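Input.
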Amino acid sequence: DHCALGAGVASLLSHVLFILSQPSDVILIPAPYYSSFENDLQALAATVPWPVHMANPHLGPTVVELEAAALQAEREGLSVRALLITNPNDPLGVVYRPTTITNAWNGLAEGECTPLWTKSMHFLCTDPGKLDLNPWSEFSTMSLA
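Output.
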């Protein structure tokens, strides 16, 4: 229902995270990821880009891999605020299957990773397409396209 305009996804992303997060909040990003995210997430919003290491980057992140990354951040005293998925993945160029993204989202929404995921968790996707995401979920979802 809300629309924001900016000079590209990088500026929109940093503004959205400035609004939704606190300094030092973790943004989970499946790795490898676009190298400019390091600057984009830290410069204005002062958030921490946190890589989600995947066994197979061509298949995308699993709930187990997301949970492992989030637990590591929590062990280091950091708060996970958002999951950022770029689709197609940059730099790999891999287009994640809709089921990959939906499974990651549903894993969060169904509480498989609780207590890490809270109502303050946000799901950001550069191209969610026509994913079957529950619009009544407790989490906010945003398309940055």
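The CA atoms of residues 98 and 132 lie 8 Å apart.
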